[in-house]
Amino acid sequence: KKRIFSGMQPSGVITLGNYLGALKNWTKLQDEYDCLYCIVDMHAITVRQDPVKLRKQAKDLLVQYLAVGLDPEKNIIYYQSHVPQHAELAWILNCYTYMGELNRMTQFKDKCAKHADNINAGLFTYPSLMAADILLYQTDLVPVGEDQRQHLELTRDIAQRFNGIYGDVFKVPDAYIGKVGARVMALQEPTKKMSKSDENQNNIITLMDDPKVIMNKMKRAMTDSDTEVRFAEEKPGISNLLSIYCAVTGKTIAEAEKEFAGAGYGTFKTAVGEAVVAELEPVQKRVKELEANKDYLDAIIKSGAEKASRLADRTLTKVQKKVGFPPRI
Ligand code: ATP
Ligand code: MG
């Protein structure tokens, strides 16, 4: 079986974007691939986090991974900080990554603009930690959204550079391209992506939003002065809602356009909201059940870390030897 690695930051509550762009697709991969799904808490502290909140968000994220249907028997689900090999390999890879390469990363530039008061070295070297995450497990495929493509490209460059010096140490991973229509945009600013760290709550729908809240946010979503429910570049708001509707219902854009021909935006938005509610309600119910089951969660946390650690050690030991670290006695 081919191996897949992916992760999510516990930097906020999971959004509909994370769900449709990543999580939902992950559940479809679990039978065909060997998957590791990490909760990348070490990445999350590149931006200042409140420790109490971060711990809660990490726990919530684990519960949400499970609630959407990721099976802990089929996948390795774990916290990044519980597997120290990530940090160890990241340090080594940092020494094989150029400043110039990191400087070109658009996410770094974006985050610098957003967090001008805290432009720390971790934010800068974020991509080498991400490379370590992926390369530690000899990953074949990485399902990433468009926003992570550049980082994956860099991971490949680092792997190839290292292999070029020391022989075949790392598998060079490929991007796993999921189905289209999975890029969800911010509801009130549909030209930028929906992001869980967005301060404007009306821009995002979270996995845990109440049905009423979802309907309300939908109502407030930005549209345009036209009245036609049609997918078009000049109609980013309506196009975004159409994509969401189709991703959730499995309908095609053409089918949806036909369904809402002449219906008006109000009717359309209500239908999108209801479709999203129907999709998320069972997930929310599962979350409640899982939250009541602390022992079960603890067992997953423990065994996930053990399984990941065992795999990670194989690669790390090889790398340490290649670069010339003395063997442990
Ligand atoms: P942050 O704002 O903290 O970066 P985020 O919402 O971008 O949060 P990440 O943890 O960076 O979330 O990404 C988790 C996964 O979700 C990645 O695979 C990413 O590509 C995907 N993703 C994030 N936002 C969207 C979106 N709007 N549409 C589709 N996929 C998304
Ligand atoms: Mg992101």
From TrEMBL:
Source taxon at top rank: Bacteria
Binding of ATP, residues: 9-11, 17-18, 145-147, 184, 193-197
Keywords from the named record: Aminoacyl-tRNA synthetase, ATP-binding, Cytoplasm, Ligase, Nucleotide-binding, Protein biosynthesis
Signal peptide: none
Annotated motif 'KMSKS' region, positions: 193-197
A GO molecular-function annotation: ATP binding
Motif ('HIGH' region): 10-18
Swiss-Prot/TrEMBL catalytic activity: tRNA(Trp) + L-tryptophan + ATP = L-tryptophyl-tRNA(Trp) + AMP + diphosphate + H(+)
GO cellular component: cytosol
Localisation per UniProt entry: Cytoplasm
GO BP terms in the entry: tryptophanyl-tRNA aminoacylation
E.C. designation(s): 6.1.1.2
One Pfam short name: tRNA-synt_1b
Positions that bind L-tryptophan: 133
InterPro entries on file: aa-tRNA-synth_I_CS, aa-tRNA-synth_Ic, Rossmann-like_a/b/a_fold, Trp-tRNA-ligase, Trp-tRNA-ligase_bac-type, Trp-tRNA_synthetase
PANTHER family: TRYPTOPHAN--TRNA LIGASE, MITOCHONDRIAL (PTHR43766:SF1)
Subunit structure: Homodimer.
Family statement: Belongs to the class-I aminoacyl-tRNA synthetase family.
HAMAP family linked: Trp_tRNA_synth_B
Role noted for this protein: Catalyzes the attachment of tryptophan to tRNA(Trp).
Protein name: Tryptophan--tRNA ligase
Taxonomic source organism: Anaerotignum faecicola
Taxon lineage: Bacteria, Bacillati, Bacillota, Clostridia, Lachnospirales
Gene behind the chain: trpS
